[in-house]
Design brief:
Four copies of one chain form a homotetramer. Chain A has three helices and six strands. Chain A has 135 residues and is an alpha+beta fold. Chain A is globular. The model of chain A has no long low-confidence stretch (mean pLDDT 96). Chains in contact: A-B, A-C, A-D, B-C, B-D, C-D. Chains A and B meet through helix 2, helix 3 and strand 3 of A and helix 2, helix 3 and strand 3 of B. Strand 3 of chain C pairs antiparallel with strand 3 of chain D, so a sheet runs across the interface. Chains A, B, C, D: Pfam families: 4HBT. Chains A, B, C, D: InterPro entries: Acyl-CoA_thioesterase_PaaI (IPR052723), HotDog_dom_sf (IPR029069), PAAI_dom (IPR003736), Thioestr_dom (IPR006683).
Chain lengths: 135, 135, 135, 135
């Protein structure tokens, strides 16, 4: 499992878009993953909240890593769905994804995205998606 | 309608995340919107394709603008779903969203995202989501 | 709250399609609902498993009731997404939905659908959707 | 192709749930399918409209058949998402699904569901989902 976590970190660090946005893979378990994203001005929309596109990036990538860890190797996200619950602001976002249904051909994951403001986590989006083995 | 398009462009240009990523609002109609995103190295994942998170940003924002134009004013995306069809590479991405079901309380939009390589458009993702009036 | 549960049961019992399929509202809380559906031959697909359409009915209706209970009154489901995890067979299905994000204008719910075979629950589908107040 | 259509009809006719609900497979093409469902009292919810669960059955099954025809054989729906646009009433419902992204490992389909009242089709729901080959 240590090897798998190291593998996950290696993959994550080789994603230019994750570096560009400023995200970090802050936890990787046998079937779950946590990403953290400091909120900078670059990530905002016109009202000063985090843009939905930055939140959807977190859902996409946290689901991909949770699914890939559950599958034990290279994996791709094939689809996901996200519901926005409230505007996101604060110091950073945390996305936690967990594999719920694990098969050989697909893993279905759920993901919760929290905005952390003054040390308090507020649920701002939930997502659900499918990860498949890379062919 | 010219005013509405100008309003849409004004909103788009005041989104720091859209500028940061490098996206442009290249068309705005009474119930549809087109976004264009030049593919730069910053937008890629570990295999050199565009990261799903950048594609999901396009879906989120194209749907938001198509829905907002159909609603005629300030609007929010409440949820969307995206399916990735093939890896995205080339010179740029184009996302086209269209309002399909227009009510007072919600507009449901479909969105197609194309990767343009050597001048040829290839469908690389489709999305569907809901836009509601800003309260 | 007793009144709200009685209200939920009254609504459920006045749904011809729920009676036709044979579903029961087996639990109703302040922000969650449980539906139970005995598996009969009428509900099956060509391989003898429960048809996805019967499972999607359960997701649709369990989400609607969980959301309506959280909203405190008449409500409509506006959208949902479902992932099928494994073929469903056994004596009955149980769908449990829970409101996760509760606002005035919408409630977002998650739902798990289990197939019960020889007394053992197996997770066969998960869903996520939005409920809005009836206008 | 005639063989494939005959194969599709044979599969459809061996689905007890489709017979129970009263649906018919009214068209089957190389990558699309149409289902028709007469509106009977059994299919309604508490306000006299067609229950969302009956509409979601149509989306599930039309997507499955369109995807299976595109894949050329036995197939399963792995997930879908549906947005309800307006209450459904009239003489019957028609669901038309079309494969949009066709690969070896998955087909992604869009589906439109119309309510037909006094001979006029009204779009009442749209859906999008994934079909995979049966293993």
């Amino acid at each position: 499992m240590d090897d798998l976590q190291a593998f996950a970190r290696h993959i994550f660090e080789s994603q230019p878009f994750s570096r560009f946005i400023g995200a970090q893979l802050t936890n990787a378990g046998p079937k779950d993953a946590e990403l953290t994203l400091p909120i900078t001005d670059n990530l905002k929309q016109q009202h000063g909240f985090v843009h939905g596109g930055a939140i959807s990036y977190l859902a996409d990538n946290a689901i991909t890593f949770a699914g890939g860890l559950a599958l034990g190797g290279n994996a791709l996200i094939s689809e996901f769905k996200i519901n926005y619950l409230k505007p996101a602001r604060g110091s950073h976002l945390v996305a936690r994804a967990q594999a719920k249904g694990i098969g050989k051909r697909q893993v279905v994951c759920q993901c919760e995205i929290y905005a952390v403001e003054d040390g308090e986590e507020k649920l701002c989006a939930i997502a659900q998606g499918t990860v498949v083995p890379a062919s």
